[in-house]
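COMPLEX REQUEST
Ligand: pyridoxal-5'-phosphate
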Amino acid sequence: MITASTCARITPSAADAADWRQLWREAVTDAGELLALLELQHLAGRLPPADAGFALRVPRGFVARMRRGDARDPLLLQVLPQLAELDPAPGFVADAVGDMAARAAHGVLHKYRGRALLIASGSCAVNCRYCFRRHFPYGEEIAAAGQWRQALEHLRQDASIGELILSGGDPLALVTAKLEELSRGLAELPHVTRLRIHTRLPVVLPERVDGPLLAWLDALPLQKVLVLHANHANEIDPGVDAACRQLRDAGVTLLNQSVLLRGINDDADALAGLSERLFAAGVLPYYLHQLDRVQGAAHFEVDDARARALIEALRQRLPGYLVPKLVREVAGDAAKRPL
Ligand SMILES: *Cc1c(COP(=O)(O)O)cnc(C)c1O
Ligand code: SF4
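STATUS: Structure written out below.
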């Protein structure tokens, strides 16, 4: 095998481009293997059949940040299939975010004033157990399906849209050439002045922040915002720090959104630690989301009273700019609903 470092010395940009996709493909997809890597083989008998209907997927670099021998590791619990996912839970439904799946078929969600959201990709490098996506694996690569044009046409006809949000799935799952194609189309829309990217990739696979991606961002004549998704301080390691630093150097404002998850980050120490660690990486906390009530995720739910108490505890101990806004997505609302 030609290693990434050997390649890098020969052709830096080509090696960069190949590297993250290789790491993506090499992700752990077998729960038994994941447990073995973490010296937790004895838990194999407690795995649900067929991954409880939602494939396990986690990049090896993210597994390396998990503690060996700790079944309660906060990173492991985000990705390991659990028997609890099979428990029936009233109110937890397949379509937890309204008609999201149907509208996503057209690629563009225009719910909030001034901002349009494009489902740019259906893929993710990691499968998070609490995600609504577990029941709606969007078609692969909406962008590749020739829908760029349709999406851009929608944006062209509405001059009130000042910000385009790329979401998914994970929009950085697209190869950079695809992103360049999109931004060439955006260049014809003078009213769109901001590009926002919602992505978990710089956290779970920081190698995605490679030379071509940085060059694209750096050259983009728009204001650039990247909203990361990390739920626990342990997710941020020196590789993530370096990716964040390079993104900031390319003129990108970095924010983070988290989901409040029982047993993972539902205590004041964990949340304060996350905010502090994000800031050390040059990232400001933005939203703390109450869980979407999606079937299979009930065991992660934290009740509203406790969620409010946690935010209050953060207010007492952190500077205001390190306290995320606690919100819930409610179908039909004109904005995320503050709790
Ligand atoms: C969350 C969301 C946004 C962004 O909302 P902000 O409050 O600006 O972060 C935009 N469009 C849709 C459809 C969303 O779900
Ligand atoms: S990265 Fe985001 S969209 Fe993808 S599975 Fe995780 S929470 Fe869902």
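REMARKS: The CA atoms of residues 155 and 307 lie 37 Å apart. The two ends are 52 Å apart (CA to CA).
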